[in-house]
């Protein structure tokens, strides 16, 4: 798809556009009008005076016509913004141009010849609008006291540490500020109305703004699904905000859904992630800097915050006067570019416009990055990690393999985002490990009785234990575990990946035979997680079910995979990711894992072998998928235990003989070995573990 923002040559630009800091050309007619001819003392001088007066009138007419023409052709919004920029100390070596089409998109060119590594734009902190400015007078200047008070209370609530009502707090507050300055600025000037008025009426290329024929091209793509999810979220935020501002709006329909959706589109498509003052990361609107279009090229502008807190944009290459100057929005695939900015690139090295049948790890990386940045940065972490970084967190996760650690270090995610994800990964594992004793105690005390009861149970009754609503885990992620924004998006993305795992072509994730068996038989049906019939009506399925029950209370939350299995899985992952956009190419997922643990092999040889087959550069979410399956199986196990307790334990006599008490399930160490061993469906002993 062609790029959304249309480019026009400099000669097609709107008249009156000029570089910030340049002056209008002198008018020769003004000098003519200002000239003072001396009167001729000759009697015939009256005729000369008449000619002179006629010339003056003609010159005045020319000047007046020029002024009227300038008033008609000059862009009032740009003129007001230019004056506002000068007053706020914005310095630029760029010229803003406007395309001559129905959208009137603005773009930037070099106002003069620019040398490489030279500053081309400086925006003082006072001219940058951030969500935290809702607490400052400068952020609400020009708004009524009542309205400013409501905005401050909204910011107090949404930006409070640990509060994640919508997980979009910063962008939501920033959008409210921008929206009200535009609304109020239509009748009277405010601190930011000149900037808000300059912004376009819409983002033309967003899917919601496309006609039916163009929209049909995007059907089935991740771009359309992302865009639809954004629109739904904006509408939820609007309903939440409209209730809070009801007393301000009163009977006036000042605050409509399209107003807020417009503001959210502006924030999502034009904001920067900056370090401002005490805030680690802020979502901020930087006037003039947001006029440059995106390009994946080495000469795009780079930016930083200097020691004075000013935003400084630097040219990486030399530009001639009139050359287009681009910004760089980040390593976005066309899915994210299309759903958030409304355009796609013909040649995009980060392209991931994937159909939703693939669900590869590259899709998870792209989606998490898009959602996290779209939702407004990093909140304070509820898990106390004492300033630890990603490397420290990875060391606490014993199931993280060497090749996974290597690809994590090449992640496109910013460091603060990686640290937040890994902090919650450690937190998740610790919370699950704390409850492993419950499952161990159950099986040690009542394992033999449970096995007997299960084998006597009708397969249809067994199947009823394997039903979990699909939304159950999302509810747990938001309530029970209270994860931060980034890891919530990771887990929700991984849930979709697990549901569609067969279509990825990846090798099995499980570290034991019983875990792999669950993985291959797990699926969804009618809005619920369930298992295939072979899991409940075959001897092998029962053996694997008992093995997973013992693994829940075993020595390790996620047992390590054998070395050979790691190699095969890594090779499969690399093959699938190299397949790119070919949706028909699949990698077989045969189940020929070697049972040898391989933990005694030399680490150097293991690393070398894995590096040959894993260097795809994409971080892995294998551990997250395994944790999700563990949670699903725990739900199944709890359902089965509840039915067993009601059917057997509640009806048992309170007293029992020592011989009966000795009928216990194997120990935890025996459980692990029984789980790892290849099952023999023909062996009758296997039925009772």
Automatic annotation (TrEMBL):
Protein name, per record: Histone-lysine N-methyltransferase setd3
Low complexity bias spans: 665-682
PANTHER family for this protein: UNCHARACTERIZED PUTATIVE METHYLTRANSFERASE
Gene3D superfamilies reported for this sequence: set domain protein methyltransferase, domain 1
Taxonomic lineage of the native organism: Eukaryota, Sar, Stramenopiles, Bigyra, Labyrinthulomycetes
Ranges annotated as biased composition (Acidic residues): 24-41, 590-607
Naturally occurring in which organism (per UniProt): Hondaea fermentalgiana
GO molecular function ontology, one term from the record: protein-lysine N-methyltransferase activity
Keyword annotations: Membrane, Methyltransferase, Transferase, Transmembrane, Transmembrane helix
